[in-house]
From TrEMBL:
Organism per entry: Cohnella abietis
GO molecular-function term, one example from the UniProt record: nucleic acid binding
PROSITE patterns associated with the record: INTEGRASE
Source species taxonomy: Bacteria, Bacillati, Bacillota, Bacilli, Bacillales
Protein name as it appears in the record: Transposase
InterPro entries reported in the protein's UniProt record: HTH-like_dom, Integrase_cat-core, RNaseH-like_sf, RNaseH_sf, Transpos_IS3, Transposase_IS3/IS150/IS904
BP terms from Gene Ontology: DNA integration
Biological role stated in the UniProt entry: Involved in the transposition of the insertion sequence.
Stored SUPFAM superfamilies: Ribonuclease H-like
Lineage: superkingdom: Bacteria
Residue span(s) of domain Integrase catalytic: 98-262
Length: 266
């Protein structure tokens, strides 16, 4: 009988040790993500580490430890000026957000970034295959130069082949002559959303929503433009592109997913 109780208590002790180790990993991934990961993404990271655990168990541990992923406040500033007489490109993308390879389809948009020093605007370009932000630019002026600089950054980084579909809303910054000329020089195929249809550019709007929820509105407001630039650079280039797991690409980071694609093509 004493052997049975010894076996029973040792089994309970092992379970407690395992749960304690698991809780430590859960907390590590939570704080490593700057408190942005919920139970689905933490579960995905644990699976990569060969843990056999359910998402429900991860959620229970997070509640026990008082870990709650950051939530955004509802706040919206209009960044689309479609009240103009500039040429409008046809909707080539047609809400077909699936891509078969990198640099086949890009989507672009502008979003407002709050800052105490002055209002800021972020222009971003996202690759629909890798989910990577391939180009971006922060400025205190919502002009064509803002979107052009993001486009030039993306082109310099990726050198996409002829025929890439480049989709945006109908904003004047994207319909401007200089922007259309640059797309022509890069041999990209312009595409624009239908009037008043936010779903036509849903993927890049989803990125901006993630940015606001996980990073912008869950932290103190940027004090200066320089601070905003530095912290956005770290979030986009080091966290979002290289580290943050994305459920649509198998809980891999965009850069890892892109590297895996080219490795398999070699």
């Amino acid at each position: 009988m004493s052997g049975y109780y010894k076996w029973l208590t040792s089994g309970v002790s092992e379970l407690k040790k395992r749960k304690a180790k698991l809780a430590e990993r859960v907390k590590w991934h939570f704080y490593d993500s700057d408190e942005s990961y919920g139970s689905p993404r933490i579960h995905g990271e644990l699976v990569k580490e060969k843990w056999i655990v359910s998402e429900r168990t991860v959620g229970l541990i997070m509640r026990e430890e008082g870990l709650r992923s950051c939530m955004s406040r509802k706040f919206k500033v209009s960044t689309t000026d479609s009240n103009h007489d500039l040429p409008i490109a046809p909707n080539v993308l047609q809400q077909d957000f699936k891509a078969t390879k990198p640099n086949e389809k890009w989507v672009a948009d502008i979003t407002y970034i709050p800052c105490r020093q002055r209002k800021l605007y972020l222009a971003s370009i996202l690759d629909l295959f890798t989910k990577q932000i391939v180009g971006w630019k922060l400025s205190d002026r919502m002009t064509t130069d803002l979107t052009l600089d993001a486009l030039k950054m993306a082109y310099a980084a990726k050198k996409p082949p002829k025929g890439l579909i480049h989709h945006t809303d109908r904003g004047s910054q994207y319909a401007a002559k200089d922007y259309r000329t640059q797309l022509l020089d890069y041999k990209m195929k312009p595409s624009m959303s239908r009037k008043g249809n936010c779903y036509d550019n849903a993927c890049i709007e989803a990125f901006h929503s993630i940015l606001k929820r996980e990073f912008i509105y869950s932290k103190p407001k940027f004090k200066t433009v320089e601070e905003a630039q530095q912290k956005l650079y770290r979030y986009i280039e080091f966290f979002y592109n290289r580290k943050r797991s994305n459920s649509t690409i198998g809980y891999m980071s965009p850069v890892c997913f892109e590297q895996l694609y080219y490795a398999n093509m070699a």
